């Protein structure tokens, strides 16, 4: 099962932002449903790690400042 850490790493590789479609394809999981890209993003959103801007999901706060 894909976890939040893998999603964060994927976003870091993509300069801190990606669409739901890109995230689902990059992680090899479904866009919606249990254990989906959207469920992971919502979990990270409640923790203040990601936020949505239009179609893009992006890292915010400390996570965004750690992009290499």
Structural features:
alpha+beta, 4 helices, 68 residues, 3 strands
Explain briefly what this protein structure is:
The chain is built from 4 helices and 3 strands, in the order αβααββα.
| Overall radius of gyration | 11 Å
Structural class: alpha+beta
Helix content: 40-55%
* Average predicted local confidence, pLDDT: 93
In terms of DSSP E residues, the strand content is: 15-25%
What is the number of beta strands? 3
What order do the SSEs take from the amino end to the carboxyl end, as H and E? HEHHEEH
Number of helices: 4
Subunit organisation of the chains: single chain
Largest sheet: 3 strands, antiparallel
Separation, N- and C-terminal Cα atoms:
26 Å
Q: How are the strands of the largest sheet arranged?
A: 1-3-2
Q: What is the overall shape?
A: globular
Uncertain segments of ≥5 residues (pLDDT<50)? none
Q: How are the secondary structure elements laid out?
A:
Blueprint: H1 4-13, E1 17-19, H2 20-27, H3 37-46, E2 50-53, E3 56-59, H4 61-65
Structural write-up:
The protein has 68 residues and is an alpha+beta fold. A three-stranded antiparallel beta sheet has the order 1-3-2. The protein is globular. The chain starts with a helix and ends with a helix. The mean pLDDT is 93.
């Amino acid at each position: 099962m894909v976890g939040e850490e893998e999603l964060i790493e994927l976003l870091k590789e993509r300069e801190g932002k990606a669409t739901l479609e890109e995230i689902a394809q990059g992680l090899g999981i479904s866009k919606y449903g249990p254990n989906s890209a959207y469920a992971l993003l919502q979990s990270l959103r409640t923790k203040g790690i990601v936020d949505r801007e239009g179609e893009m999901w992006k890292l915010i706060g400390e996570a965004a400042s750690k992009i290499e």
